UniProtKB/TrEMBL annotation:
<protein>
    <submittedName>
        <fullName>Acetyltransferase (GNAT) domain-containing protein</fullName>
    </submittedName>
</protein>
<feature type="domain" description="BioF2-like acetyltransferase">
    <location>
        <begin position="157"/>
        <end position="285"/>
    </location>
</feature>
<dbReference type="Pfam" id="PF13480">
    <property type="entry name" value="Acetyltransf_6"/>
</dbReference>
<dbReference type="InterPro" id="IPR038740">
    <property type="entry name" value="BioF2-like_GNAT_dom"/>
</dbReference>
<dbReference type="InterPro" id="IPR016181">
    <property type="entry name" value="Acyl_CoA_acyltransferase"/>
</dbReference>
<dbReference type="GO" id="GO:0016740">
    <property type="term" value="F:transferase activity"/>
</dbReference>
<keyword id="KW-0808">Transferase</keyword>
<dbReference type="InterPro" id="IPR050644">
    <property type="entry name" value="PG_Glycine_Bridge_Synth"/>
</dbReference>
């Protein structure tokens, strides 16, 4: 059909956002504003690509360069709950190989995330799954707040957890005040450290209100006098009518009869419903119904939406080394000898931690 790719420029930034806003799979995390946060605050060097057919934009790819030894590739965007390739709704999956060929002329490998399983049949290059994860998403059109409340069970006590904060005089309020953001970050950090997850710096949270308007970001704090229970930072993407429960701040020193997560989620989804949002993302999550975080999100009606993640190997060298590494892992062999350039390449590019389970700074399950 004839596809081409070009790197994002200042001249094409507006067209990028327009495509993202019109695409059914478009998200807050594909926006140019989010790109600027990654660049200016978190010092990420992203590579954004536009896919065109003739003069028409048919896809966008947010990514970052990944250079390992002498091989260059494209990795998925870090710190972003949604970082899939976005393609026009009318894009023919059979054309995916032709699109990837454009990237193969520049790179040796490509980390591909997509929400559309049918694309996996048309990659055309050697490819392997590298991460099993999805997003927990609530469809408010199918499950409005009233339905969720009715589905809470007496055995689990969700309604009791929510009512307790009202009964004890806790109040929730919106804020963008710098001092409030410091409090939010303090308990956000303590919560993530407790579960051994990565923590974003205070400067990141202080910059967000400068970049995003009240139509794009909402911060709520739950407190009673000087007692802070928790907070929730929500991103909004009005074009897709989606709210993202992105960062959770929790006071873990409260008595164990208090469960602020339930109150914060309940208040947040009611706010989203009242303001015309149709979907709520509770963040990334492994498919593990026994996990407490998975269970809480499922209690609020969220369903697991898989992300189809593949490492696409464009060159014979990369593909061969990957298979060698897989064979070594299966045999539970001794650690690789990294004394020669070939061994160094094999150990770095095809290290199991990189290819099978890449872990970016800040990548974590959702709140």
């Amino acid at each position: 059909m004839g596809y081409s790719i070009q790197e994002l420029s200042e001249e094409t930034a507006e067209a990028w956002d327009e495509f993202n806003n019109q695409c059914p799979e478009g998200t807050f995390f594909h926006s140019i504003k989010w790109k600027k946060i990654l660049e200016n605050v978190l010092h990420i060097d992203p590579k954004y690509w536009i896919i065109s057919s003739g003069q028409k934009i048919v896809g966008i790819v947010p990514s970052k360069k990944c250079t390992l030894t002498y091989l260059k590739g494209l990795d998925t965007l870090p710190h972003s709950e949604f970082n899939s390739i976005l393609l026009d709704n009318n894009f023919d999956p059979r054309d995916l190989h032709e699109v990837l060929t454009q990237f193969a002329s520049k790179y040796s490998f490509f980390f591909l995330n997509t929400n559309r399983q049918e694309f996996l049949d048309y990659i055309g290059y050697d490819h392997y799954p590298y991460e099993i994860v999805g997003n927990m998403v609530l469809n408010l059109q199918q499950k409005p707040p009233e339905t969720i409340w009715e589905n809470f069970s007496a055995k689990k006590g969700q309604r009791k957890f929510i009512r307790r904060f009202d009964e004890k005089g806790f109040k929730i309020h919106e804020t963008h005040e710098p001092e409030d953001m410091k409090i939010f970050h303090r308990y956000y950090a303590e919560n993530l450290i407790r579960i051994n997850a990565d923590v974003l710096p205070l400067t990141f949270f202080q910059k967000l209100p400068e970049v995003f308007s009240s139509d794009e970001m909402r911060v709520t704090l739950l407190s009673k006098g000087d007692t802070y229970a928790g907070g929730l930072l929500t991103f909004m993407h009005p074009a897709s009518k989606t709210a993202y429960f992105q960062y959770l701040s929790l006071n873990r020193n409260l008595p164990n009869t208090y469960h602020p997560t339930y109150y914060l989620f309940w208040e947040g989804l009611n706010w989203a419903w009242d303001n015309g949002y149709e979907k709520i993302s509770f963040g990334r999550q492994k498919l593990d119904p026994k996990n407490p975080r998975f269970q809480i999100k499922a209690d609020f009606g969220a369903e697991y939406k898989p992300i189809y993640s593949q490492i696409v190997l464009f060159t014979k060298t990369t593909s061969l080394l990957y298979r060698i590494r897989k064979l070594r892992v299966r045999r539970n062999s001794m650690p690789l000898d990294t004394g020669t350039p070939v061994r160094q390449l094999e150990a770095s590019v095809l290290d199991k931690r990189c290819i099978e389970h890449p872990r970016h700074i800040g990548r974590r399950p959702g709140p």
